[in-house]
Specification:
With about 170 residues, the protein is of the alpha+beta class. It has one domain. The chain is built from five helices and five strands. α3 crosses α4 and α4 packs across α5.
């Protein structure tokens, strides 16, 4: 028996005061329609340090002092709560071995590919979107921005997929 049948003459009351329970109202993406990269939201900066005073030389094993420091910016999956991209700014050290004279940097291979601009998480997600979900490159690029707030050009996604997710040396 419906609620309107229990209370004759009160059908309008139930129709007006019924709330739909569901995922919520549709809100369009505020960045949809933006065509210039400069107009996108500014990234949230997360600073990390990999600057050490001394490291072992990978060639001879001698303890090497820090020679100088550099910074490297990596694009990571964005902050969805703030609706902004996230950039990791890593300060890392370069060392010089006094025994063999070799210069070497601190290992950052756990964060990103050598000379890459994106973290391993971004590369893996982009390749997975194309290979497992079957999305075209342009759609995968838009999906990364819309759902993860990381801007990756579709040609970069294509290069990653064709390389099997690994960067050729």
């Amino acid at each position: 028996m419906a609620q309107a049948d229990k209370y004759p003459g009160r059908t309008d009351f139930f129709r007006e005061n019924v709330r739909m329970i569901g995922p919520g109202q549709y809100l369009p993406d505020p960045t949809e329609g933006i065509t210039r990269v400069e107009d996108l939201p500014k990234p949230q900066i997360v600073r990390r340090s990999r600057s050490y005073r001394r490291r072992r030389c990978p060639q001879c094993g001698h303890s090497a002092y820090r020679n100088r420091t550099f910074t490297r910016t990596l694009h990571d999956l964005g902050d969805l709560a703030a609706n902004r991209p996230r950039d990791l700014v890593i300060t890392y050290s370069q060392h010089r071995c006094s025994r063999c004279g070799r210069y070497f940097n601190v290992d950052l291979s756990d964060l990103a590919l050598a000379n890459g601009h994106y973290t391993h998480r971004v590369v893996a997600l982009a390749v997975r979107l194309v290979v497992e979900d079957g999305l075209p490159y342009r759609s995968a690029s838009w999906h990364l921005w819309r759902d993860h707030r990381v801007f990756v050009p579709f040609a970069t996604v294509q290069n990653w997929v064709e390389a099997g997710g690994e960067k050729s040396r």
